[in-house]
Design brief:
By secondary structure, the protein is of the alpha+beta class. The protein folds into 3 domains: 1-51, no CATH class; 63-226, 3-Layer(aba) Sandwich (Rossmann fold); 238-376, no CATH class. It has 9 helices and 17 strands. Strands 3-2-1-4-7-6-5 form a 7-stranded mixed sheet, sandwiched between helices. A 5-stranded antiparallel sheet has the order 8-11-15-14-17, with no helix packed on it. The relative contact order is 0.13.
Length: 382
């Protein structure tokens, strides 16, 4: 009697799956094909390059900024690193970290006012300290981290006192990602600044670079250099149009939104992100979303195999807002599978984060191509 075998195709590109020729379309490792328990499988090319990301994008860094940092290092300068507390976890650059992680560094964790009103400041200080240590700044202590916002004059005065104490007759370099609020902090500082030198506050190219910096004299021999914001090409804020930017950019405290979810359920977060529970030992999973109120969140009860069809329908009918013109189906999104064995946050750089309370779960997250995600212990208390 003849044996009838169903031909399997790549779920993403449609190529016939085969295990014979790695250079031909549809190639997948033999053991993957034999051990697959799902009805849909991705060929190796789609799995590695198109769909399931294995390396996170990093913000762009140009040569001029490296030149500036190397000069700061030669001068034994004080580095003041400014971050946006709401979304900074994936904004680090490995090359910058390796250049300055052994320097004299203090961290200004800005925009504390965007976090929920019940957020514990000391817990946030520890959170930031631990993350910087994990990024290679092993000498950073909690006392090196200042939690503030641009209108917190008391803390800003405290920071300036520490800068004068820590600079040790050296220059000070203010660095940080774009949209970290660095410029607003400088403006707040200048409101209380008394220039006791004969020098002027000037904006000019930094030596041997094309970078425009603001030079603020501290005394006859030292100055603060406010540097251009670091690239955030891996942030969703860099990749949307002006109208979408206004809908997702947070300007007031974030309001948590709670959901109780089951396996195979998902959340469409605007037309930008999909959060999906693939499997879990928990009967129910409590999920809290931290995004701008303008971002629509729709729960999807349809199983995994129909998620693309559902997403396309909602996008086409403009029922998911905001969105991006270049997103028409989940093929336009990068996909990450994340296995959690405890309560953690899954974040999208520039957009916000999702707190997942679980003991064991496999989560799939879809984000616009090139946008970084992060997984960390919870940032704020429930």
């Amino acid at each position: 009697m003849s044996e009838l075998n169903k031909i399997r195709r790549c779920y993403n590109c449609g190529a016939i799956l085969q295990s014979d020729d790695p250079k031909s379309s549809g190639y997948v490792k033999k053991e993957t094909l034999e051990n697959a328990t799902q009805n849909f499988i991705f060929c190796d090319d789609c799995f590695e390059k198109e769909r399931f990301k294995q390396e996170l994008s990093e913000p762009f860094l140009n040569d001029d900024f490296i030149t500036l940092l190397k000069d700061a290092k030669k001068k034994n300068a004080l580095i003041v690193y400014v971050i946006n507390l709401y979304s900074f976890e994936a904004s680090f650059n490995k090359e910058i970290n390796s250049l300055i992680n052994d320097m004299n560094v203090i961290v200004i964790a800005n925009k504390f006012d965007l976090l929920p009103s019940n957020t514990n400041k000391e817990k946030i200080r520890l959170y930031v300290t631990n993350l910087f240590r994990a990024k290679g700044f092993t000498h950073i202590k909690e006392s090196d981290v200042f939690i503030t916002n641009a209108f917190d004059d008391e803390t800003i005065k405290e920071i300036m006192t520490v800068i004068y104490q820590r600079k040790n007759k050296k220059d000070v370099f203010l660095i940080g990602p774009s949209l970290s609020g660095k410029s607003t902090l400088v403006s707040s500082f200048l409101r209380n600044f008394k220039n006791l030198t004969e020098g002027n506050i000037v904006t000019q190219p930094y030596s041997h670079t094309n970078l425009s910096v603001i030079q603020i004299p501290l005394n006859k021999s030292t100055a603060i250099y406010d540097t251009p914001g670091l690239g955030i090409e891996n942030s969703i804020l860099y990749n949307v149009d002006k109208s979408t930017f206004k809908e997702i950019y947070l300007t007031k405290p974030v309001k948590p939104r709670d959901y109780i979810m089951l396996t195979n359920q998902s959340l469409f977060i605007g037309g930008l992100t999909i959060f999906e529970i693939i499997s879990s030992e928990d009967k129910r999973i409590n999920v809290t979303c931290y995004f701008n109120d303008s971002l629509q969140i729709k729960r999807n009860f349809v199983k995994t195999k129909n998620i693309d069809e559902t997403f396309v329908k909602l996008i086409t009918k403009k029922l998911l807002k905001p969105s991006m013109n270049k997103i028409n189906s989940i093929k336009d999104l990068d996909v990450y599978d994340i296995c959690l064995n405890k309560t953690q946050d899954i974040g999208i750089l520039g957009l916000g984060w999702i707190n997942v309370r679980t003991n064991n779960a496999k989560i799939r997250i879809y984000v616009p191509k090139g946008i970084s995600i992060f997984v960390n212990d919870p940032k704020v208390d429930d």
